[in-house]
Design goal:
Layout (H helix, E strand, L loop, with lengths): L7 E8 L2 E7 L5 E8 L2 E7 L3 E8 L5 H11 L5 E7 L11 H8 L3 E2 L13 E6 L5 E8 L10 E8 L1
Parallel strand pairs: 5-6
Antiparallel strand pairs: 1-2, 3-4, 4-5, 6-8, 7-8, 9-10
Amino acid sequence: GLKLHDYDLHLNSVGHGKGIAVYYNAEIFSHRADVKKPLFQMTKMCSSDVDVLAVYRSSGGNKDELLKDIISLIDKSKSTVLCGDFNFCSAKEKNCPFSRTLKNMGFEERVKVATHIKGGHIDHVYFFCPNKKFSLDAMLYSPYYPTKDHDAICSTVRIL
């Protein structure tokens, strides 16, 4: 696999093209949990102030089951970044139960543009900050990217 200087790698996958690779600074983040199911995977990384939940959902993955597993991993006392390839268009399905539940929990969708070559908003970044101590900026990053059909999203959490 790809090695990045000064970063550790955590893999959570179930086959070719399905899963998550998380590169992280071990002085700041630690691996806390994995969910590994045939049609979706999740990895939780934690720092002292911010949790990051990385998600890969295959197009046939059950959104209700995914949401239940996401909720089980959220620490409501900490800021949380929920991000990944959700394989449903957040613009077309902005009022679906999945999106509505996250909004009602205080999460804000930070990507407002298409991330897929066919125009879908399928890569999402949600942010929850109960203490208003942080902000999150998300922008598309479009270098050569291994899947060739998605843009990457660069998210930066800042202390206010």
